Amino acid sequence: MNKSLSKRIKTKGFTLIEVMLAMAIFAIAGVALVSSTSTHFRSLSLLETKMIANWVASNQLVEVSLDKTWPLKNNKKGKEEFAGREWFWLQKIAKTNDENMSQVTIEIRLDQTAKSSLTSLSTYVVKEGS
């Protein structure tokens, strides 16, 4: 009876290697989960920034549409406070085949010195009375 009792005691539980292997698997899964969450958060943050930048650009295009001065000013710059941030915009005018129509593009940046814009929106504006 002593032999069977000692056999049962030996076979119960996990070995140190099994415990360490399980811990390693959970650690790898945890790192993957944290990495995935971090990537998801960065994507959401960038999406929110671009969405707000599009709103700022859209607001500027509406202002251009309401402004009746002609010809439109090229490379006009400005800044706007929106959603708790300061946004810098640049208005670019491109001529079209029709002298009474111009293409207006608004570029939005978070930093005035940035070379690339977060977003840009375009529209066409027609000279009033034509």
Mind explaining what this structure looks like?
With 130 residues, the protein is α+β, with helices and mostly antiparallel strands. The chain has one domain: Pantoate--beta-alanine Ligase, Chain: A,domain 2 (2-Layer Sandwich). Helix content is 47%, strand content 27%. The chain is built from two helices and four strands. The protein has helices at 2-11, 16-66; strands spanning 76-82, 85-95, 101-109, 119-126. The chain has a four-stranded antiparallel β-sheet, with helices on one face. A hairpin with a 5-residue loop joins strand 2 (85-95) and strand 3. The longest helix has 51 residues, at 16-66. The N and C termini lie far apart (109 Å).
Count of discrete domains: 1
Using the coordinates shown, work out and report the CATH topology: Pantoate--beta-alanine Ligase, Chain: A,domain 2
Biggest pleated sheet: 4 strands, antiparallel
Low-confidence stretches: none
- 3D shape: rod-shaped
Record the strand order, biggest sheet.
Answer: 1-2-3-4
Question: CATH-wise, what's the superfamily?
Answer: GSPII I/J protein-like
Secondary structure class reads alpha+beta
Following the backbone from N to C, one meets helices and strands in this order, namely HHEEEE
Number of helices: 2
**How many DSSP-defined strands?**
4
CATH class: Alpha Beta
Strand content: 25-35%
| Overall average pLDDT | 89
Helix content: 40-55%
Radius of gyration from the CA trace? 31 Å
Span between termini: 109 Å
